[in-house]
Amino acid sequence: MGEVLFVIDNTPVTVGMAILAAAGIAFLAFVILAVIVTRALRASHDNFLRQALRSEEVEDRLSDIARVQAETTGRVHSMGEALSGRQAELSRSVSERLDAVTHRVGQSIEQTARHTVESLRALHERLAVIDNAHKNLTDLTAQVTTLRDVLANKQSRGAFGQARMEAIVRDGLPKGAYEFQYTLSNNKRPDCVVFLPDGRPLAIDAKFPLEAITALREARGEEEKKSAGQRVRQDVSRHVGDIAAKYLIPGETQEMALMFVPSESVYADIHDGFDDLVQKAYRARVVLVSPSLLMLAIQVMQQIMKDARMREAADRVRDEVLHMMDDLGRLRDRVLKLQTHFGQVNEDVRQVLISADKIERRAGRIEELDFSAAEPAPGDAERADLFPAISPRLQAGE
Asked: Are residues 298 and 326 in the same domain?
């Protein structure tokens, strides 16, 4: 035990020391191993606990997942059922809407077809109207052409203006107030005369020179228009002079005459472009009138004739009014006499009523007498009071 085995740093190491050192090392190794084992066991236990906790957590999570999956499955099933129901409702709604749309489309097509048929019918009617209008327009074109031919001829134009003027005069004046183709003292015959209240006729001429107006309208260049304007002035001035010379007779006819222009447009053209010509005619006491102005002049003449007839009848009306005033005076006198008679009758009736009242009062007093009671006989005075002597004549007021 005391045998030295080796020396370490001048320190002898014996067997006992070596055994003790080995024992210490072994003990230390055992302790270390025990510590290591303990730690390993603790670590394994902790790992086991952790694994157990993890297992529990996993189980809990799995159970939650299973529950969620079950709930999800239920919800999916519910959603499937709901979607199935909604799909059925959607299919039914789509079918109903398709049926409604189909019905509406059918109705719309039917209405469209009916409206199309009506439109086609109306179109045919309008086409028929257009055909008639075209036919009328063709006839009117032919009539206008005929009218142009008529107006191109001087005699035909005069007949046309004469016919229009006669129609206006006949419509506005009574018979006897006018005369056509009346012969004057100078053996001239105006187209129409109107007899005014002073006895002097008013001459109306219907032969207007239309050739110059037609040439003016058909003129294209400035020279042609100027030449046509000069011709209008010459023709109308010549016609105005002829009217003034033929139909204005001092003391026999009116102081002015009328020149009838049978067209409103021609009258407007003359007034717009030839004012000097209108003034010249006015100074010559010849008035240009269109159909509308002639109708207005006829109305004025008719009113003048009516006023003249009223003035002629004024004296007769005055005499009748005077006679009526005399009759009114006699009627007043007779009414006053009748009022006097009514007053006398009223007075007689009043007197009769007074007498009737007295008789009624006396009859009342007689009725109040009591003949059953035994009373002394009344005297003569009382008898005289009850039965007074009747006067041979009824006095006034009794």
From this structure: no
